[in-house]
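Entry 14. Ran structure prediction on the chain below.
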Amino acid sequence: MSHWWKQITVILTLSLTVAACSRVGLAYRNLDVIIPWTLSDYLDMNHEQKDWFNERLKEHLNWHCTTQLPGYLDWLDRLQTMVETNQITDAALQTRTQEAKQAIAETAREITPSAIELLQGLDDKQVAEMNDAFAKDQRKRQQDYLKPSLEQQIKERSKRMVKRLNDWLGPLTPTQQQRVLAWSNALGDKNKQWAANRAHWQQQFSAAVAQRQSPDFPQKIETLLVNRERLWTPEYREAYTNAEAQARALLLDLMAESTPAQREQLLKKIAGMRKDFTDLKCLKAAQRG
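Output, structure tokens:
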């Protein structure tokens, strides 16, 4: 089930993904559907916690499939219409992006009480291991995204985007490839702001979990998971706003330069995504009910 969910996260947040130049950390088979870190990477649950986790997971997946997936189908229909009628405008992209953000926030709100309960039950050893994993994550991202020269960062960012776009549009033309490179150049040292903001979030998360029995812990976690933008560093907030604008401009230019074959490929991908959803047993059961 996970392969198509990873794909839908790309299209559900197409503008966001381009803007953020990173995959949104969604996984349909995990409780951390929206949480921007993966429990299996950062947390070693004991047997009792895993049993509890699996029961909650079933409930969340059922809620998600029956209440959220129909909205995703509608969203895909709107996206398909935009492509078919050539109505891909800056305003339309902003609207689709806002809808995607709202969908993400709704699911985050739904799973937050479970996340709070799980985190409150951690022992000190588990918390220490989580913090060590955060530190390891920061070192790896420093190595992968910040150690290379700015010129190399721009080149790698462009390469990742071309690969992503090839999957949705098919091979890019030389003109389109140049436009992607210009987009990457325009983002400059965004990697630096992104990595710093991620570390900032992890530090605040660790500080909250250290006080997980305090009365205001649930509110702190809700902010960290549902309203993360409130906690962004000023530098990242500015960089993100710029990145979103640059992403929309990139998409507009690429679609303006798109060939009939590329548009057909994009529509085929959207149709395939829609079929993956409509074929889900849980969605069919919900529709029958």
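Residues 1-38 have pLDDT under 50 and may be disordered. Will compare against last week's run tomorrow.
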